[in-house]
Amino acid sequence: MPRLRGGARALVRFATMALALALTVCLHLGCASAPTKRHAFVGHAMGGRVEITIDESACDDGRERARLAAHRALLELERLDGMLSDWKPNSELTKLNTSTEACRDASAEFRGVLARSLEIAASTDGLFDPTIGPAVRVWRESRTTGRLPSADTLEAARRLVDWRAVTIDGTRVCRAEGAIALDFGGIGKGYGAVRALATLREAGCPRALVAVAGDIAAGDAPRDANGWSIEIAPESESLERETLVVRNAAVSTSGSSVQHVEIAGVRYAHIVDPRSGLGATRLAQVTVVGPLDCAVDALGTALALTRHNAEATEILARYPGYKARIEREGSVAWLGDPH
Asked: Coil, strand or helix: which one is 38?
């Protein structure tokens, strides 16, 4: 059962994907009754572990179909890595960020991810902001050195964080200032999980689950269940684990229990708060459940940065069909659509 933990969204680092797969298969004697098996594959993409589970026949053709489908899904993640990564020097994102042009042509898919990012930025009042790139770069340095940035360095980075300074004009992406840098860390893994699941479906394996770090895309239910079981591990030891059963849905968890750093006695999360330009110091653990859309990933980031549940409720009201589990200081509430 996949588990979601606070901080499951690793510090955004799109690493080169290992295409070698670990395949777990239990053999069944005979195939006359077409028994099924959940075939598990493991790989690496977008800076984290990728787990793919496919419910398919235990016969040879079913195992081979699952293997080939998983391979195609991992290749799709590798393709997206080459588009959305800010670590790869030749990615489409890096080329745009390092360009001195005010407007630059971008692929239709890149523009689509950016357009969705800007929509979510508007609906979350900038708590999710795809122009967080300059602040992320400064914060990465602080995490490495254990020292906070100077006031001047921090202010220079914060000045460049403004989603309203980026527009899409036909086939071009335009920035009001060349130093503005996009960062898809808060939406890329969610988009990748949804696209990988779509690839599995296209390959004839609709009963599948894809987990890219803390972002999960669940397809049709397995033959022997109502859906895919996903366990939520709370941050507080006083709370019980919860289990979700989902199908044809996306799930994303954000939090700070794993990914954090302490500097001068203050604990900072890995998620950068656009308001301060630093790692968040008050971060809720949030699990968002919604349609197969990368919005759950970005909403997880935004809701984790809200100060109270009333603010989170106001944001979720703009997203019918979405719900969120929010844990703050040992207390849990489910907001949005009924749990």
From this structure: strand
Report helix angle 151-159 to 133-145, nearest 10. Answer: 150
* CATH number among 3.40.50.10470, 1.10.10.10, 3.40.47.10, 1.10.3980.10, domain 92-175: 1.10.3980.10
Length of the chain: 339
30's CB contacts (< 8 A; 6+ apart) are: none
Strand order in the sheet with 242-246: 3-5, 228-233, 242-246
| Residue 18 confidence (pLDDT) | 33
* Cβ atoms of 59 and 68 closer than 8 Å: no
- How crowded is residue 155: how many other Cβ atoms within 10 Å of its Cβ? 11
d(CA 5, CA 302): 17
Q: State how far the alpha carbon of 298 is from the alpha carbons of 10, 76, 81, 122, 260, in Å.
A: 14, 21, 17, 12, 19
DSSP 8-state secondary structure symbol assigned to residue 272: B
Q: In this predicted model, what pLDDT tens digit does every residue of 69-99 receive, in sequence order?
A: 999 999 999 999 999 999 999 999 999 999 9
Between the CA of residue 304 and those of 185, 209, 250, 269, what are the distances in Å? 15, 24, 17, 11
Q: Which helix (H) or strand (E) holds 117?
A: helix 108-123
Helix, strand, coil share (%) of the chain residues, nearest 5: 30, 25, 40
| Burial of 168: CB neighbours in 10 Å, binned 0-12, 13-18, 19+ | middle
